[in-house]
Amino acid sequence: MSKRLHARGQDATYVNAIMKVAFYDAKPYDEEFFDEQNSDDSLEIAFHSFRLSTETVPTANGYQAVCVFVNDALDRSCLEELANLGVKVVALRCAGFNNVDLDAASSLNIHVVRVPAYSPHAVAEHAVALLHTLNRRIHRAYNRVREHNFSLNGLVGHNMHGKTAGIVGTGKIGRLTAQILQGYGMRIIAYDLYPDTDWAGQHGIEYLPLEDLLPQSHLVSLHIPLSPDTHHLIDDEALELMMTGAYLVNTSRGKLINTRALIGALKRKKLGGVALDVYEIEEGIFFEDLSQEGINDDDLARLISFPNVLITSHQGFLTVEALSEIARVTCTNLTHFENGEPFLEGTVVTAD
Ligand code: NAI
């Protein structure tokens, strides 16, 4: 099939060519949903199972776009090499963009697009599933019963009804998480740099400064993006402010939490439990099968060893609905670029 890229200023370089996309950190489920979305072959996609980095960037030679995920490292040197190779678009198949040097991309005239909201329900539901599993020890009960151990010792949880949930970040995912937890009969308090007072008023939710939210919350659930301001937001000081015995749930980004501080808080039994879908250094571990070789990250190994820590491998987004939407938005954006049409509204990421 022959495709033409219409004039688009300095991007107008490909004539009579299908847009070629180098796809990194590809998993079988990615290929399945992107192949389905691209069933008319309007894009030529090369799926690579390895991640994009300064080491692997030569594999983008001959491609006009790269499609990346949360753990591909697009720092300045990687982006400079992408620009040298003629890559014009970085398509993130996720909402977060903390792994891309946006200043560098902008100065190199590389467009960065993302999928801002593929399914906030998927992540919110996963956050609550983690909380529920942690609280009622379902992960432990499941393993026991498989071993024909029907004892209940050590499985005592708490009613969620009547407890207070502190929602940190009330964007799309945080708001849905709050509303699901209200269904349990929890009182919701929230913290956000930009409070949504209309939503809070409609749902009877009170905004508080973080230092007031932490001591009042039986559960703290994190839903803010990673930025220089939010890096290690949950540190020794914040953990100390939390209610003794509280649960901490993080489905947002691992670096929001100082892992060493978290391990310390767990060791001194400050927290009742921790559920993580994200980890400070996921690269090379999350999404991989390391069951034969084990892991070299001693902090992660220590976290996994606590009976009251539950970890999933960044799977909050992993629903049919979310994967379909990620593929739809990403392929549409790439074909729009190919055809000289604007990117979908709200998907362009800029340095500002
Ligand atoms: P969103 O952009 O709708 O909401 C983020 C909220 O955080 C906004 O209300 C914003 O005002 C607030 N915020 C930003 N900076 C802040 C700061 N410094 N202090 C306090 N509040 C601040 O984002 P959405 O869609 O709700 O996603 C939240 C996060 O969830 C994403 O940034 C991403 O890291 C994570 N995520 C995780 C997934 C997973 O599979 N586990 C999948 C998708 C997103």
Written account of the structure:
- It is a single chain.
- The protein is an alpha/beta fold.
- It folds into two domains: 5-118 and 319-338, NAD(P)-binding Rossmann-like Domain (Rossmann fold, 3-Layer(aba) Sandwich), CATH 3.40.50.720; 120-311, Rossmann fold, CATH 3.40.50.720.
- The protein is built from twelve helices and twelve strands.
- The protein has helices at residues 28-37, 76-85, 102-107, 120-136, 138-146, 172-183, 197-203, 210-216, 236-241, 259-267, 298-305, 320-338, and strands at 19-23, 43-47, 65-68, 89-92, 111-113, 164-168, 187-191, 206-207, 219-222, 246-250, 271-276, 309-311.
- The strands form two sheets. It has a seven-stranded parallel sheet, with helices on both faces. It has a five-stranded parallel sheet with strand order 2-1-3-4-5.
- Helix 9 (236-241) links the parallel strand 9 (219-222) and strand 10 (246-250).
- The longest helix has 19 residues, at 320-338.
- The radius of gyration is 22 Å and the shape is globular.
- It starts with 18 loop residues before the first strand and ends in a 14-residue tail after the last helix.
- The structure holds 1,4-dihydronicotinamide adenine dinucleotide.
- 1,4-dihydronicotinamide adenine dinucleotide binds next to helix 4 and helix 6.
